[in-house]
Every structure is written in C-alpha cells, then in structure tokens.
Amino acid sequence: MSEPVRLRPVVEPDLDLLERLYEDPSQAGDFGFFGYRNPGQLRRQWSEQGFVSGQGGRLAVAAGDGRFVGEVQWRQVFQGPDSPCWNIGIALLAAERGKGFGKLAQRRLAEYLFAHTQVNRIEASTESANIAEQKALESAGFTREGVLRGACFRGGAWRDMVLYSVLRGEVALEG
C-alpha cells in the first residue's frame, strides 16, 4: 500500500499547477491570495536555481497515486543571533483541501527537515481565521504559541496570525 502523501522535488510538469496556486485567486483560496505577482517568476526560479538551498526550499506534495496536490516550503529565520530555525508553509490545490493532505505533508516536512538539517525548531503561522490550518498544524504535532497581532497584510487589511512550533525532540525520526 502506498503512502497517502509523500514529498518530492518539484518537476517540470508540476510548474503549471504550482503557478496556479499563487496566481489564480480561485486556487489560492481565502487565505492564500496576496495579489498578482511577477508572472513566470516561479518557473524562472525553478529553471535557474531549483527550489532547494541552504536557506530554504519547496517540495511538491504528492498524493498516494503520485499526482501533484500542492507544495510545502521552508525558509530560514532567526530567533537569536546564532539560533536559526525553519518557518514552513503549505499551499494545496482547492480541490485537494479537506482531505488530510495538509496535516500529513506538514508532518513529513518537519521529519525531513529534522533528519537533514541541524535546526532544533520549526515554526509555522497562519491567519487567526484559518481554523482548518490551525487544526492541521495541531494534528501534525505543532504547539500553538500565541497570536501575532496585525502581522499579515492581505486583502486590504492587517490580520492577526497564530504562531505554532515543533521542536526536534518532539518528532520521532526513523533511524
């Protein structure tokens, strides 16, 4: 039996759907559209340097049958001068939301990052109104830390964000 979700590098056939996640308001959804961006920017970045570096990256989220259902991403942030951690995010195609892919993909990403990097902390934030993502993060093993007031500008208004984290010792890694 195949895994219900797996992470893999983004390949060229994924790029059309990946671009739709950010350039099509109906795919981005209520919490994912931040206005129109530079068309073709993702495709250029993929062809010039790929999507994985020492400061962050993005991977495709694939359903058990292998089809692209979204992407996860991470970027390095610092909580102290010498204390890097990862901040992660997820975007799923509109038709794939509510099927449990988000919870599993974010858990797999945390496992991957703890297995392949030396950070001790992974954090994620979501708008306070995004209850589905809050539930997904909690189901993936993240702990709610608090509210970041007026931290995100979207749709003409400043919105509160909820901050979550998971620590290395809280995620069991296969050895």
UniProtKB/TrEMBL annotation:
Pfam families: Acetyltransf_3. InterPro entries: Acyl_CoA_acyltransferase, GNAT_dom, Ribosomal_N-acetyltransferase. This is GNAT family protein. It comes from Streptomyces lannensis. It comes from the Bacteria. Residues 5-169 form the N-acetyltransferase domain.
